[in-house]
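Input:
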Amino acid sequence: MKARVFVTLKSGVLDPQGAAIGSALDGMGFDGVTGVRQGKVFEIEMADASRDEAAEQLDAMCKRLLANTVIEDYSVELD
Amino acid sequence: MKTAVIVFPGSNCDRDLAVALREATGSEPHMVWHKDSVLPEGLDLIGVPGGFSFGDYLRCGAIAAQSPIMREVAAFAGRGGHVLGICNGFQVLIESGLLPGVLMRNATLKFVCRDVPLRVEEAQSAFTRGYEAGQEVVFPVAHHDGCYVADPETLKRLDDEQRVAFRYLDAVNGSMNDIAGVLSENRRVLGMMPHPERAADAQVLGTDGKAMFRGLVDTLVAA
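Output:
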C-alpha cells in the first residue's frame, strides 16, 4: 500500500522560506503570486495491512516523527 | 561529580563540551553513543551537544530525539536529573518534548556564526546561579535554525514562571521575545542556542561560559 503524507505549516506560523520563494517567483516575472507556503511530502510504502490499520499507523508516524504538531499540520492520502 | 555527553552521528561540539566539563569537574565525562540504551550509573549531569545530528534531516533534532538513548535521557530528567542542551542539543531536547516551543529556520534565512551579547534573565537555576540576574555575557552562536517560536500561552507561562534563562540583546535569528535559552518547569533542564562551552577557556574566545559549569559543580557536588 502506498501513502502520501503532506506536512504543512499551520496558518499564522511565519514561513521565511516560503516568503523568499514567493519573492523569487515575483522577480522571475510570475505576477499574481500572492503567497507561498513551503511544506513537505512523504511517499511511504507499507507492507500489506488493512486500510484502517495503515491509516492508524500513519497517524501515529505523523504525530511522533513526521510532523511537529506545535507548528505543523498533516494530512494523509492512501492509494 | 559524574557527567555524560551524548554523541549522535553529526555531533560536532561533543568534545568541546567534554573539555569544558572536565575542566570544571576535574573528571572525565562519559561519552555515550546514541545507540546505547543505558546510561552510566550515578550521573549528575547529561550534556546534549551541538552539531548537525543526522544531517539536520526532516527537522533539526527530530531524528536524534528518537534515538534509543533519548528515552533514558528523558527518564533521567523525569527523575529530576540535570540536562544541558546546547544548540543542536537544544533542538533535540525540544523535539524530545523535554522543553516547550520549537526552533525554526532563522528569520534572515542565513546561518549566523558570531559572538552575541546576551542577558542572563534568571539566576535561579544550577546553570545560571554563577551569574547575576540581568548580567550581560557574550557567547558565540553558530546555527541556521535557532528562531524560537511558541504559542502565546507558552510564552506567557515561560515569563510568569521565570523560565527564560537567556535573552539576545540584539537581533540574531528572529526568536520570539528574543529568547535564547529556556528552563524546564523543575528548572533542571536548560536548552540554549548560544555556546557556553565555546566561551570557557581564556586561550580560546572568552570565559563568560565558565560560570555556568562552575554553578553546576557548586550545585551538584554539594547535593
